[in-house]
Write a structure and sequence with these properties.
Blueprint lengths: L1 E5 L16 E4 L1 H5 L8 E4 L3 H13 L4 E5 L9 H8 L4 E4 L4 H9 L7 E4 L5 H10 L2 E5 L6 H9 L6 E6 L7 E5 L1 H5 L7 E7 L38 H11 L6 E5 L5 H8 L3 E6 L2 H13 L4 E5 L14 E4 L6 H11 L3 E6 L5 H10 L3 E7 L2 E6 L3 E6 L3 E7 L11
Parallel strand pairs: 1-4, 1-5, 2-3, 2-4, 6-7, 11-12, 11-14, 12-13, 14-15
Antiparallel strand pairs: 7-10, 8-9, 8-10, 15-19, 16-19, 17-18
């Protein structure tokens, strides 16, 4: 049996757990604060593979092993690796209080509606995009992915956020500090940071929940045009939006660009699926319209006032892009988007003449290209309580999907 003890936030090892151990594995500070039996081998956790090999040698001899871990070891912790190697039946897990639970407790907030992201040994961009999109996020930090790096990424293209940096939780050196992203970016936080909370305090309280974590997907999508403010029917129609959303695939932890956003209907719907979204619009009244629609639907869409492709070079690289406008500049816009999109680019256009150039731009960037002409007729009333079919304007929808093997070479 391998006993896994979560040290929680300052918790001590339960009496008797260590008494018969022949091998004790843990972080340096956990080993230093534990009463390890005389004669027991100690391993300071660093690279995981050698430690697992040593644990296996003791398990094969039937000798007891104790692993000391931080917080709740079943929550982004070592339990996963141990269970994969030795089986869940071989583990006796004694969880402590996680740093996430403790950090939220220190702020007086519930966390059943929080998104929790680990940036420890992982790409920070997922955590950044979750913080852009959601009002209550906990980020488990790591080397190169701490408060300074998170703050620097959030200083631009994100507003209204406060960071709560929790360090050395449960110890005599505990610190819980509230800072702006810019203040976080300007400091050296050392190695004692346990977790960072990113809060939009205007939205972070939230209603009572039945399902914990990120909100489940929206009950409806491809919303009726009447759900959005728009000018002279200049809005992506819901039939087109439905297929566009399916090809964009907006999801938690990713960034979507909506270029030529207009009313922001696609941007808002992507945000409702949990993605971080940047809407680019060249008209001032369009920018205000996008903001109003985002506020009406309770989502955070960052708007950029400017013309594509000029303004695109200043934006963080997207996972997916929707292009709904562009005129004569459309091929250049699609080319600029395709150079930086990690996963897909979706383009809607009414003009047949622009289809070949867009296909060439997508294919030239290494995408697999496909598309469809969408034509629909909606039910419309006629006098006498009868119904006719009212045709909508046909729209070409093209999309390009980047082969997974080529993602690493995308310009950031």
């Amino acid at each position: 049996m391998i006993t896994v003890v979560g040290r929680g936030t300052g918790a001590r090892v339960p009496d008797g757990v260590l008494s018969g151990a022949r091998l004790v594995v843990g972080g340096r500070r956990h080993l230093a604060s534990a009463t390890v039996p005389e004669g027991a081998e100690q391993i300071v956790l660093g690279p995981l593979a050698p430690a697992l090999d040593t644990i296996e040698a003791y398990v094969e001899k039937g000798e007891p092993v104790v692993v000391l871990a931080s917080g709740d070891p079943g929550f982004f912790g070592i339990v996963r690796a141990l269970a994969e190697r030795f089986g869940a039946d071989a583990l006796d897990v004694r969880p402590g209080v996680s740093s996430v639970a403790t950090a939220f407790a220190r702020t007086g907030l519930t966390w059943d509606d929080a998104v929790v992201v680990s940036a420890h040994g992982r790409d920070l961009r997922t955590a950044v995009n979750a913080c852009r999109a959601h009002p209550k996020v906990a980020v488990l930090t790591g080397p190169g992915a701490g408060p300074a790096e998170l703050g620097a990424a959030l200083t631009h293209r994100t507003t209204g956020r406060v960071l709560v940096v929790a360090s050395a939780l449960g110890s005599g050196a505990e610190r819980v500090e509230r800072v702006t992203p810019a203040e976080a970016a300007a400091r050296d936080w050392g190695t004692a940071v346990s977790v960072v909370l990113c809060l939009d305090e205007s939205r972070s309280l939230g209603a009572a929940r039945t399902v914990a974590g990120a909100a489940v997907g929206p009950a409806q999508w491809a919303l009726d045009e009447r759900e959005f403010e728009h000018r002279d029917s200049m809005i992506t129609k819901f039939e087109v939006r439905a297929l566009a959303l399916a090809r964009i695939g907006p999801r938690l932890g990713e960034l979507v660009w909506d270029i030529g956003s207009g009313s922001g209907s696609v941007a808002v719907e992507c945000a409702r699926f949990g993605a971080a979204v940047i809407a680019v619009e060249k008209t001032r009244d369009g920018v205000e319209r996008i903001r109003a629609n985002a506020e009406a639907h309770g989502v955070d869409v960052h708007t950029v006032h400017g013309a594509a492709p000029t303004v695109l070079s200043d934006l963080d690289a997207p996972d997916a892009v929707f292009v709904g406008g562009g005129g004569r500049e459309l091929p250049a816009i699609v080319t600029a988007c395709a150079r930086r999109a990690r996963r897909t680019v979706v383009v809607a256009m009414a003009a047949l003449d622009r289809v070949p150039a867009v296909r060439e731009a997508l294919g030239g960037a290494g995408f697999a290209v496909d598309g469809v002409l969408l034509q629909s007729s909606r039910l419309a009333p006629l006098p006498g309580d009868v119904t006719r079919l009212a045709a909508t304007n046909p729209v070409f929808l093209l999309w390009g999907v980047r082969p997974p093997a080529s993602v690493e070479g995308v310009a950031q």
